[in-house]
UniProtKB/TrEMBL annotation, chain A:
Pfam families xrefs: Ald_Xan_dh_C, MoCoBD_1, MoCoBD_2
Organism: Haloechinothrix alba
Name of this chain's protein: CO or xanthine dehydrogenase, Mo-binding subunit
Alphabetized Gene3D superfamilies for the sequence: Aldehyde oxidase/xanthine dehydrogenase, a/b hammerhead, Aldehyde oxidase/xanthine dehydrogenase, molybdopterin binding domain
Keywords: Molybdenum, Oxidoreductase
Example GO molecular function: iron ion binding
Domain of life: Bacteria
SMART domains, sorted: Ald_Xan_dh_C
Aldehyde oxidase/xanthine dehydrogenase a/b hammerhead domain boundaries: 18-124
From TrEMBL, chain B:
Molecular function in Gene Ontology: FAD binding; oxidoreductase activity
UniProt keywords, alphabetically: FAD, Flavoprotein, Oxidoreductase
Keyword RNA-binding: no
Alphabetized InterPro entries for the sequence: CO_DH_flav_C, CO_DH_flav_C_dom_sf, Diverse_Substr_Oxidored, FAD-bd_PCMH, FAD-bd_PCMH-like_sf, FAD-bd_PCMH_sub1, FAD-bd_PCMH_sub2, Mopterin_DH_FAD-bd
PANTHER family per UniProt: XANTHINE DEHYDROGENASE SUBUNIT C-RELATED
Residues in FAD-binding PCMH-type domain copies: 1-177
Lineage, broadest ranks: Bacteria, Bacillati, Actinomycetota, Actinomycetes, Pseudonocardiales
Any Pfam family: CO_deh_flav_C
Full protein name: Carbon-monoxide dehydrogenase medium subunit
Length: 763, 292
């Protein structure tokens, strides 16, 4: 029986359910010390004094590290190197590290932190991104020009990075417009909140660091740790235990370099685990954004041109993906609808706040929220139906996206049509009740194109082991997806495909669990290795069975001659034969997505230039608003999602459920507020995650439009279900109350305010 | 996170608990159901050095009703009280309020007296006690005393219990047969502490005039607040729409909320008005349509 397309049970499922899995935060080593990090209480200050001499003499204290122990500058993806491990001379956010301590016990480490003498001379914090860009705003990085970048990037002062797309004749199109519509949208920070906090256990042996950490992206942790410590990447070995969730928050280094420095200085293993409060205060969330859109439309609703300014709050440095993903905002604005003339500017701005980073969907959710609320505004101006204006401008076969990339099919329309069969629009419009609203949002999203590699061997018992640095962050990509692919390719049982835990010493390079790329990218790399293993198996079998390799088939753990199922030899025998003849069966493979053709000339400062293995989606929600309290209840939610090929439908549905719920949290509840540079919501009482009781029924339909270079046609599936959720909810609430809500989250307070404003303007 | 170290003592009856409280003084805390205390300890927001566990006691677990009152022992589990028919028919506001108190699993363990003694101004049971003018019986080394609910709750998490006193039980006046009750709560998520809660009990006489109106609000002040002015405006009237709306405005005028991380004072004030009006109207419907 083939594995692909079936809901095989996760390889790690039983252990996770029974509680026997040892997660990163459970991992420790014999004699490990407890590490703690001293963090700045002020958002902006000069360090007048930092004296660790008293702390160093305290009982149980084995090492103290400060800025001199970590000489390097680095940045996420090595794009913009403006981050040091410890603050040097100047503090740029509340929570920035000043020193770190390793002691025998947690209490001793905390006592030592308290004994470090710190004198900070406060500076005026720059907190608002708009203000940061004004002339005369204090420079958060006075030495910004000296920082290394991966490519020359447009940047200046507090503008950390800028990416631009400009296509067509925007100004001329605005001249001809029937209407010009303008809006501004503001969105909040969202914290990833994996159930397992960040944790790292490091030791230093024979001149190398070994760090166990539940990271999504071990090679990034290796490279970034090495750069901050001023050593070579190969001097650091990263091993990944089971990961208790990431959602983008575990792509980058967080505690690993501190643990490494302290391990080297103390000569002992050092373990650091964040508290929940440290997670919320210091781990980089999705950035807050400001999106300003201005659109020229024709009388029939056609978008003639659009100008967009996206301001993304980088926080105090570029230790997160915010710079690297700047252009994604512009791409997503111009890849669902035809925007023939476009000028998008995406600005990533320094502020004296904790750095921001990747969170599932990066800047997509707020860009789509802005675009969709804006489209509804346009529809109101033109008196058009909200679904009609979307269908009218929907991108399809032969159209090009804003980057000049050709759309590969009418799949967005198919998603909208499928949704129509599930939730007929006119029927819902006709049966509308007061303070009930609904909305539909199509969206194009991408699969991360990044590199993966794998090494595969046939074991003596006929099972298969794949060595890989691909990580399982809970999506099932490693626990099911890639194993299903290999199982079918080699004709072995799903349970006979083993995958090694990620280890940068043994696994080849892998870009990590991000952008829905693991089944796609790591899976493709494994298939590439599997092809070679398959050839080796067939060569050996051909000799044993006295048949030509092309007449052989692999199934049920053995090789047989086509049409003669009795002439067969098992994989264990093939493995044994190979080790005596041609040598053990082993091969490696690699993958990086082939380039798509696009118009590079229309973009500057763009690090993300195009859509790989694009996926097509349509979401719908029905909501009810209490007009007296402003409270929003989501009644029903519907998702149509193109996945290329559903390798494991149940895992995909799980990702859709999770993505939608996380999106509802972003739309309605979650708000990591920063007041005066301090994170307000450092606990899960006021940082509100949605719970099961807040979650509506979610209906799902999976579409399969195969990708020619995806494994068996598969494309990314895990990231996109969060992307349009805030937009759908925002538009549905606006429909329910007859007034827009241009900020996230859509709180009861904001809803009441919008109702009141609308009442005043009607009066 | 786990709590800081503490000493554990177990009391076998209320007298022993009082003795232990007297012995350890202010450093001791009573452990009843632990649904508020234990999370606070885990967050290190409470650091008692001694916990006196009263889960082994038997003299504080009872539900008794006579002609005029319902008496509930402090160690009665909230879920038991919620489902108790005697309590529900004597004071139907109790099960209605308890349905909003955390989740079922919290109520399985959480106790009636624990919630009262914890005195969270947004919690349901203190608001019920204040709404209905309940009385609390406490025991100290020199005997028992009785405290009216409005004098028991002093400030957030502060009651008039002395360090060596324990809450034994609370007494609530039996509501007239057919009294309509309603709990209106506004929370951002299911199971959250209320931003605002309003409890109402209304009884209309045979002429359609209100001969009993009880209203209190939680989450809007440092303690639950009995809305006397609104009650006075409505008592003896036919509870028409204009009267209800005016009483709701009066209710909002009599509370003094403050801004906090969950919502602004002005939003709370507005919600007191909205929820008082809703609660009264729903309570009337409840009486008219009968208890289901």
């Amino acid at each position: 029986m083939t594995a692909v397309g079936r809901n095989v049970r996760r390889a790690d499922g039983e252990g996770k359910v029974r509680g026997s899995v040892r997660y990163g935060m459970d991992y420790t080593e014999l004699g490990a010390l407890t590490g703690k990090v001293l963090r700045s209480s002020l958002p902006a200050a000069r360090i007048a004094r930092l004296d660790t001499s008293t702390a160093a003499t305290m009982p149980g204290v084995r090492a103290i590290a400060t800025a001199t122990d970590a000489p390097g500058l680095s940045g996420m993806f090595f794009v913009l190197k403006d981050q040091s491990l410890f603050a040097r001379d100047e503090v740029r956010y509340a929570g920035e590290a000043l020193a770190a301590v390793a002691a025998d016990t947690e209490a001793q480490a905390e006592a030592a932190l308290a004994a470090i003498e710190v004198v900070l001379d406060p500076l005026d914090p720059v907190l608002d991104p708009d203000h940061a860009l004004t002339d005369g705003a204090r420079l958060i990085h006075p030495d910004w020009e000296s920082y290394e970048t991966i490519v020359p990037g447009p940047r200046s002062g507090n503008l950390a990075w800028e990416s631009r797309i400009e296509r067509g004749d925007v100004d001329a199109a605005f001249q001809e417009a029937y209407r010009v519509v303008e809006d501004e949208f503001r969105t909040q920070r969202q914290h990833q909140n994996s159930i397992e906090p960040h944790a790292a256990v490091a030791r230093y042996e024979e001149g190398r660091y070994t760090v166990h950490t539940p990271t999504q992206f071990p090679f990034n942790v290796r490279g970034r740790t090495a750069e901050l410590l001023g050593v070579r990447p190969s001097d650091v070995r990263v091993v990944v235990p089971a990961i208790g969730g990431g959602f983008g928050g575990k792509l980058d280094i967080m505690l690993e370099p501190f643990a490494c420095v302290l391990a080297r200085k103390s000569g002992r293993p050092v373990r650091i685990v964040n508290t929940r409060s440290e997670e919320l205060r210091t781990c980089a969330p999705r950035e807050g954004g400001i999106v300003r859109l201005r659109t020229a439309v024709a009388r029939d609703g056609s978008i003639l041109a659009q100008e967009g300014e996206i301001i993304a709050d980088n926080g105090a440095n570029s230790s997160g993906e915010t710079v690297a993903c700047a252009n994604a905002a512009s791409l997503v604005l111009g890849s669902t609808y035809r925007v023939p003339n476009a000028r998008y500017v995406s600005k990533v701005v320094y502020t004296n706040t904790p750095p921001t980073a990747a969170f599932r969907g990066v800047n997509g959710p707020y860009s789509v929220f802005a675009q969709e609320m804006h489209l509804d505004h346009i529809a109101r101006e033109l008196g058009m139906d909200r679904r009609d204006i979307r269908l009218h401008n929907l991108i399809g076969s032969g159209d090009v996206m804003v980057n000049g990339q050709e759309v590969d099919g009418p799949f967005l329309r198919e998603a909208m049509d499928e949704l129509e069969t599930m939730r007929p629009w006119q029927q819902l419009q006709a049966s509308k009740r007061p303070y009930r609203g609904h909305a539909i949002v199509p969206v194009t999203w991408l699969t991360n194109s990044g590199a993966g590699s794998a090494s595969m061997k046939l074991n003596e018992d006929g099972t298969v082991t794949v060595a890989s640095a691909a990580t399982e962050i809970g999506s099932g990509a490693v626990a099911t997806g890639v194993r299903q692919l290999v199982a079918d390719q080699l004709g072995v049982d799903f349970h006979d495909v083993l995958v090694t835990p990620p280890d940068t010493d043994t696994g080849g390079y892998d870009l990590g669990a991000q952008g829905s790329r693991t089944t796609f990218g790591a899976g493709n790399a494994m298939i590439d290795a599997g092809k070679k293993v398959r050839e080796q198996i067939l060569d050996v079998a051909a000799n044993l069975l006295e048949a030509a390799p092309e007449d052989l088939e692999l199934a049920d753990g053995s090789v047989h001659v086509q049409g003669v199922p009795d002439r067969r030899v098992g994989l264990a025998a093939i493995s044994a034969t190979a080790s005596m003849t041609s040598g053990p069966i082993i091969a490696s493979g690699g993958f990086v997505a082939p380039p798509e053709s696009f118009d590079g000339g229309c973009m500057t400062g763009a690090l993300l230039t195009h859509f790989t293995a694009a996926t097509y989606h349509a979401h719908h929600a029905e909501v009810e608003v209490d007009p007296d309290t402003g409270r929003v209840t989501v009644l029903r939610y519907t998702v149509v999602q193109d996945v290329g090929r559903a390798i494991n439908p149940q895992m995909i549905e799980g990702q859709i459920q999770g993505g939608v719920v996380q999106g509802l949290g972003y739309a309605l509840y979650e708000n990591l507020r920063v007041h005066g540079g301090e994170v307000v919501d450092d606990n899960l009482e006021s940082y509100r995650l949605p719970i099961a009781a807040d979650t509506p029924p979610i209906d799902i339909s999976i579409l399969e439009n195969p990708c020619p270079y995806g494994p068996l046609g598969a494309k990314g599936a895990a990231e996109p279900p969060i992307v349009p959720v805030a937009a759908v909810i925002g538009c549905a609430v606006a429909d329910a109350i007859g007034a827009p809500v241009n900020e996230l989250p859509v709180t009861p307070f904001a809803v009441l305010q919008a109702l009141r404003k609308q009442g005043e303007s009607a009066a | 996170m786990k709590p800081p170290p503490f000493e554990y003592r177990s009391a076998h009856d209320s007298a022993e608990a009082v003795n232990l409280l007297t012995e350890y003084g202010d450093d001791a805390k009573i452990l009843a159901g632990g649904q508020s205390l234990v999370p606070l300890m885990n967050f290190r927001m409470a650091r008692p050095s001694v916990l006196i566990d009263i889960n082994q006691t038997h003299d504080m677990t009872h539900i008794r009703a006579d002609d005029g009152h319902l008496v509930v022992g402090a160690m009665t589990r909230q879920r038991v009280l919620e489902r108790d028919q005697t309590a529900g028919s004597a004071v139907p506001l109790l099960p209605a309020a308890l349905a909003h108190s955390g989740h079922t699993t919290n109520r399985n363990r959480g106790t009636f007296g624990g919630s009262l003694a914890h005195a969270d101004p947004a919690a349901e049971l203190p608001t019920v006690l204040v709404a209905l003018g309940g009385e609390l019986t406490v025991q100290g080394p020199s005997g028992k005393r009785t405290v009216p609910a409005e004098d028991f709750f002093l400030a957030p998490l502060v009651t008039s219990l002395e360090y060596n006193e324990i809450l034994l039980s609370a007494r609530l006046p039996r509501l007239p047969q057919g009294t309509g009750v309603r709990v209106e709560e506004l929370a951002r998520r299911h199971g959250d502490f209320a931003i605002v809660s309003v409890m109402a009990a209304v009884h209309l006489d045979s002429n359609g005039r209100a001969d009993l109106v009880r209203i209190a609000a939680g989450g809007v002040d440092s303690t639950p607040i009995r809305l006397h002015e609104a009650e006075a405006q409505l008592s003896g009237t036919a509870l028409d729409d204009a009267g209800i709306d005016a009483a709701a405005v009066a209710a909002a005028d009599s509370v003094h909320p403050t801004d906090d991380v969950h919502g602004s004072a002005s939003y709370r004030l507005e919600m007191v008005r909205v929820l008082v009006a809703r609660a009264i109207r729903s309570a009337i419907t409840h009486q008219k349509e009968g208890h289901r």
